[in-house]
Design goal:
By secondary structure, the chain is an all-beta fold. The protein has a six-stranded antiparallel β-barrel. The chain is globular and about 40 Å long. It is 0% helix and 55% strand.
Length: 98
């Protein structure tokens, strides 16, 4: 029997932020520098490319959203939701003066 090997390339942080998808909403469960895992009521196929944003707590007076473009690498069926793991392809910040 082979010992379990962790395949993650970056440390994960358990953070709960709103995710705004093209067709709905979700909630992050963990975030890293290479990807995000969130739950949503929408099913996405592995390999799908998504554009979405993560509503951040204000990091400073201007930054409030992380704009993400990524590829679905895993999905998990939960009781009423889907868990979706996404590797980032590109990231950007959205700024606001409010």
């Amino acid at each position: 029997m082979q010992p379990y090997t962790e395949n993650r390339s970056a440390e994960r942080f358990s953070l709960s932020y709103q995710v705004e998808l093209e067709n709905g909403k979700g909630l992050t469960r963990n975030i890293s520098k290479t990807g995000v895992y969130f739950e949503t009521s929408i099913f996405y196929s592995v390999g799908s490319v998504l554009q979405f944003s993560i509503q951040l707590q204000k990091l400073d007076k201007e930054v409030n959203r992380l704009r993400c473009h990524g590829r679905v690498i895993r999905t998990d069926k939960h009781t009423q939701k889907w868990g979706v793991a996404v590797n980032y392809l590109t990231l950007g910040f959205e700024y606001s003066d409010v």
